[in-house]
Amino acid sequence: MTTDLEALVVAAYVFADEYPVPARPGRRPQVSDGELVALAVCQAAMGISSDRQFLGLVGRVLPGWFPHLPSQSQYNRRLRALVELISAVQLRLAGWLDTGDVRLCDGTLLACASYPGCASRSEFAGFARYGYQKSQHRFLWGVRLVLLTDPRGLPLGYTLVPAGEKEYEPLADLLPGTASEIVIADKGLWGRAYSERLAASGVELITPAKERAASNEADERRLASVRLAIESVFSSLKSQMRLERHLAKTPAGLAVRIAQRLLALTLGILLNTLAGRPARALAAYDGR
C-alpha cells in the first residue's frame, strides 16, 4: 500500500465526502467541503502555518489535484465553518482504530499572542492566561491543550483550557467519551482525592511515583516508556506540523488548526496500520 502525501489527501477527501452537505443559500461553491478538508489535512501534514503560503504551494506539490483553489480569506472562513466536520471525521476514524481500554493523558501549552497588552487586546482575552512552560523555563500567555490517546498515540479526545489551569477537570470531562479502565498520566495529576474520584467511576489512574527508589525503578522505567507515545504525539503536532507556530488570531481559528492536525495524524496512523508500518511514522506524508 502507498504511504505518501497523495494517499493521505485521498483518504481525507473520501472520508469527509461521505457526510451530507448542508443546504446553503446561493450558488454551489467551486470547491466542495470534502476538497477543503483534504486541503486542510495536506496543509497540516506539510507543516505550513500560513494559509497564503500553502495555497500558493499546493498547486506545485499536487499538480492538477485541485482545479479551483479558494482565496486565503475564503479558505480560512470556510474551514472555520467546517471544524465540526473535521472533528467528526477524526473521531469516527479514532473509533475504528481504538485498540483497548488503556489511555494516556497529558497537556501542552500553546502560546496565543506575545505582544504588549495581548492579555486585554487579543481575541483570546478572557480565555487565555499565563502559564509556566517547564521545558523552556519561561512563562507564556496562551492555552493548554489536554489530549487523551491510546497507547499508540491515537487521539481519542481533546479540550482546551487556559494555560494556568491543571489537567484535573479536563481529564475528568474527556473520560466519559471513551471506554477507559486505566489512565496513565504524568506527575501533574498526583493526588489521592483525585485518584479516588476516578476510581469511583471505574478508572484506575497511574502516575509516576513521588520518589524513585531501587524497588520501583524498573516499574518507573516501563511507565516512562509507555508515556513516550503521547510525548511523541505532541512533538509531531508542534514540530513537524508546526502547531507551535499556529498563527491563529481567534479561538475559532485555533480550533481549526488543532482539528486539522489531529485529523492528519489519525489518517497517518490509519494508513500506517494498513501498511504494517509504525503507527506514528509520519515523515512519508509531509510532501518533502
List the helices and strands and how they pair.
Layout: H1 5-17, H2 33-46, H3 51-61, H4 72-81, H5 83-97, E1 102-111, H6 118-121, E2 129-133, E3 138-149, E4 155-162, H7 168-174, E5 182-184, H8 192-200, E6 204-206, H9 217-240, H10 251-275
Parallel strand pairs: 1-5, 5-6
Antiparallel strand pairs: 1-3, 2-3, 3-4
CATH superfamily of the domain at 101-244: Ribonuclease H-like superfamily/Ribonuclease H
- If you average the pLDDT, what whole number results? 88
Radius of gyration, in angstroms, nearest whole number: 20 Å
Q: What name does CATH use for the topology of the domain at 101-244?
A: Nucleotidyltransferase, domain 5
Biggest β-sheet strands, sense, barrel: 6 strands, mixed
Principal-axes geometry comes out as globular
Task: Tell me the CATH architecture of the domain at 101-244.
Answer: 2-Layer Sandwich
The end-to-end distance, rounded to whole angstroms, is: 19 Å
Q: Which structural category fits the helices and strands?
A: alpha/beta
State which percent range the strand residues make up.
Answer: 5-15%
Low-pLDDT segments: none
Number of helices, counting only DSSP H or I runs of 4 residues or more = 10
Q: What is the total tally of β strands? A: 6
How much helix is in the residues?
40-55%
SSE arrangement, N to C: HHHHHEHEEEHEHEHH
CATH class of the domain at 101-244: Alpha Beta
Give the gist of this structure.
It is built from 10 helices and 6 strands. It has helices spanning 5-17, 33-46, 51-61, 72-81, 83-97, 118-121, 168-174, 192-200, 217-240, 251-275; strands spanning 102-111, 129-133, 138-149, 155-162, 182-184, 204-206. Helix 8 (192-200) links the parallel strand 5 and strand 6 (204-206).
